[in-house]
């Protein structure tokens, strides 16, 4: 899979939201490499705000919320993390990476920001701060729901792919193309499901090794030859199986079997 280029965290691409932590606690977490609770949460979203409403750089600041129209056209809404009803742990799926935002939500956010910037000086600051907190809640909850649904859908398809692999491990012809065809998805989509550094081929090899280990350690299968087990696990030959197995476990299949059966 060739990953799509991600926009810079300070300048989200059109249609994308970036959520990040801000404040002293976040800075300490970045320095120390731990996951401290942030003082504030920042939402960055590119949305059109007419110059007749506010010039780039316009900023409204309150105790618990800040609205800043950046020169790049990105709106940055900063709110107190302690004031949100969503915990930082719940927000982790959204943090520090671009998340696609529905057009309706972008439109609502842009409209709310434009109205606040246009009338902010004439509104009660405490009420306006609560309004901005509510706006942040709405955006975060909506984006989080969509993102969790997306992750759940990916996880479900990934499970389907793994189940198919396990059911067909004995087939030497099993490949990414065959798996994708069986699941009615593209090869690219299949690679997206396993975009975790291991990939489809390595995952398939790992499943074959795990099955081989189970067969070699089973006393009921002690009479089966190494070549037969290699075929059952989808390896093209006994030598190829032995090399792959030794590389993965540090032992030959025969050594592994003897040790497992003795134990």
Supply the key terms:
263 residues, 2 domains, six-stranded antiparallel beta sheet, 10 helices, 6 strands, elongated, Homeodomain-like_sf
If you had to describe this structure to a student in words, what would you say it looks like?
- With 263 residues, the protein is an alpha+beta fold.
- The chain is built from 10 helices and 6 strands; from the N terminus they run βαββββαβαααααααα.
- It has helices at residues 24-32, 88-91, 103-119, 125-167, 176-183, 187-193, 199-216, 226-232, 238-249, 253-262; strands spanning 16-22, 40-46, 59-61, 65-69, 74-80, 98-100.
- Mean pLDDT is 85; it is low at 1-9.
List the helices and strands and how they pair.
Layout: E1 16-22, H1 24-32, E2 40-46, E3 59-61, E4 65-69, E5 74-80, H2 88-91, E6 98-100, H3 103-119, H4 125-167, H5 176-183, H6 187-193, H7 199-216, H8 226-232, H9 238-249, H10 253-262
Antiparallel strand pairs: 1-2, 1-6, 2-5, 3-4, 4-5
């Amino acid at each position: 899979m060739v990953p799509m280029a991600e926009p810079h965290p300070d300048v989200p691409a059109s249609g994308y939201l970036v959520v990040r932590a801000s404040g002293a606690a976040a800075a300490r977490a970045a320095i120390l490499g731990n996951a401290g609770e942030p003082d504030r949460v920042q939402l960055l979203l590119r949305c059109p705000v007419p110059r007749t409403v506010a010039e780039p750089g316009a900023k409204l600041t309150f105790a618990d919320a800040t609205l800043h129209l950046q020169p790049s056209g990105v709106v940055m809404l900063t709110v107190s993390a302690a004031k949100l009803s969503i915990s930082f742990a719940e927000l982790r799926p959204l943090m520090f990476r671009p998340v696609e935002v529905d057009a309706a939500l972008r439109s609502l956010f842009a409209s709310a920001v434009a109205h606040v910037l246009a009338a902010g000086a004439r509104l009660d600051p405490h009420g306006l701060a609560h309004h901005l907190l509510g706006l942040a809640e709405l955006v975060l909850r909506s984006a989080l729901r969509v993102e969790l649904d997306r992750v759940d859908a990916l996880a479900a398809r990934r499970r389907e792919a793994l189940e198919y692999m396990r059911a067909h491990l004995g087939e030497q012809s099993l490949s990414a193309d065959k798996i994708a065809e069986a699941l009615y998805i593209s090869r690219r989509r299949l690679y997206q499901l396993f975009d975790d550094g291991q990939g489809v081929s390595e995952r398939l090899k790992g499943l074959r090794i795990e099955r081989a280990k189970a067969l070699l350690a089973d006393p009921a299968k002690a009479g089966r030859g190494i070549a037969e087990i290699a075929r059952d696990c989808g390896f093209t030959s006994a030598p190829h199986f032995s090399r792959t197995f030794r590389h993965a476990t540090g032992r030959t299949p025969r050594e592994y079997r003897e040790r497992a059966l003795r134990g």
